[in-house]
Specification:
Its main location: cytoplasm. One of its GO terms (biological process) is cytoplasmic translational initiation. It comes from Gossypium tomentosum. The strands form nine sheets. The protein has a six-stranded parallel beta sheet with strand order 16-19-22-25-28-31, with no helix packed on it. Strands 17-20-23-26-29-32 form a six-stranded parallel beta sheet, with no helix packed on it. Strands 18-21-24-27-30-33 form a six-stranded parallel beta sheet. Strand 9 and strand 10 form a beta hairpin. It is elongated and about 70 Å long. Helix 3 packs across helix 6. It is built from seven helices and 33 strands. The protein is of the alpha/beta class and 374 residues long.
Length: 374
């Protein structure tokens, strides 16, 4: 079934709004902008095997940088992002013991985390894929008790990860950070730098330690588990949350990630005019036609497009039913469905909304063109 919720309530708010529909023991939450070949069944199997309250899917950060940051630039593939997602894993890389999003690379950790875990592997090369398996009863309890939580990534998952370590910190006799509203005030001498060597004694597993009941008596029950499913480095896992990511993904599915396409996406050979060339990593949709002396490089062209002669399309995405007149030059742009480009139009780094008409001889750079709402 499909349930509509308000747009501004976030991912946690969306689940809270439909919680009465959730009845299974475990649920899988997947962001709608995730493009991946990671098997949800494999994530669910890991979640159930460890009887976890949450299992987060982690994958390698794309070469162009974390797509979670939503950068629309992305032209410099070698430029590193200024902020990172810091992931802390246990030595066996099964449990998620620390998570901090969009922080400086050299950040601070509370010492009680290290005392509770024993050893922690710090990673900044992993991206939260926004695919989570939750134990439904625990998720619903958190959503009910924490009615201000709006984001699964920013609120719910960090809360579950932090709360699994509280009993271990109490056992170790380490003072914890005091809370002042939503701001945590920490003791300077109770911090360590991530960049320092983590030279702490190893424990078999922090989930095997004793925990304390509310009356302060030690018991041998296990704390809840927050697990990590780390996708293989060969997996394709990218979030489609920016214009640049949209263009990158469209090119990827014509090359290294072509297995993501179903068999019927690419139709029969389109009609090409004389001396028209289509380079590698391109896709031409069913029923599209091109005139003479055209060039298409590293671009995707949708279905039933009509492209005139002497047209050049480079690093662009052209959707369905687009008409492109003679002599047009399109670079680094996204052209939505039913757009009409008249003769000799030049577009560079532009986005053209559905149904828009660009008049003959127009030149635009870095513009967003769309029809005005009536």
């Amino acid at each position: 079934m499909i349930a509509a919720v308000p747009e501004d309530i976030g991912t946690a708010g969306a689940l809270r709004a439909i919680s009465h529909y959730l009845t299974a023991k475990d649920i899988l939450a997947v962001s709608g902008d995730l493009v991946s070949d990671v098997s949800p069944g494999a994530v669910a199997a890991t979640h159930r095997r460890h009887d976890a309250v949450v299992t987060a899917t982690l994958c390698s950060v794309p070469i162009s940088g974390s797509s979670e940051l939503g950068s629309s630039g992305g032209k410099d593939k070698t430029k590193k992002p200024g902020r990172y997602n810091i992931i802390g894993l246990d030595p066996r890389k099964q449990f998620l013991v620390h998570i901090a999003t969009e922080v400086e690379k050299d950040t601070r950790l509370q010492k009680h985390l290290l005392h509770a875990v024993g050893q922690m592997e710090i990673r900044s090369d992993l991206m939260d894929a926004h695919m989570y398996a939750f134990k439904r009863s625990v998720l619903q309890e958190v959503l009910d008790r924490k009615d201000t939580f709006q984001s699964l990534k920013q609120d719910v998952v960090p809360y579950l990860v932090q709360s699994q370590l509280k009993s271990q910190a109490v056992l170790s006799g380490i003072p914890q950070a005091e809370e002042d509203g939503n701001k945590k005030v920490s003791f300077p001498n109770n911090q360590v730098m991530v960049s320092q060597i983590l030279a702490n004694a190893s424990t078999p597993s922090f989930h095997e330690l004793y925990s304390m009941d509310p009356d302060g008596f030690a018991q041998t029950r296990k704390t809840h588990k927050c697990c990590a499913y780390i996708a293989s480095s060969s997996s394709y896992c990218v979030r489609l949350n920016s214009i640049q990511a949209f263009m990158d993904i469209n090119r990827d599915v014509t090359g290294e990630a072509d297995h993501l396409l179903s068999d019927n996406v690419i139709g029969p050979s389109p009609k090409l005019g004389t001396k028209t060339t289509v380079g590698p990593h391109c896709m031409l949709g069913e029923g599209s036609e091109m005139g003479d002396k055209c060039q298409v490089k590293r671009s995707v062209i949708g279905r039933h497009c009509r492209i005139g002669s002497h047209v050049k399309v480079v690093n662009s995405v052209v959707m369905n039913h687009v008409t492109i007149g003679d002599g047009c030059i399109i670079q680094g742009s996204v052209i939505c469905s039913n757009v009409q480009l008249q003769e000799r139009v030049v577009l560079k780094d532009c986005q053209v909304g559905a149904g828009f008409v660009v008049t003959a001889g127009s030149e635009y750079k870095g513009e967003s063109l769309a029809r005005k709402e009536k």
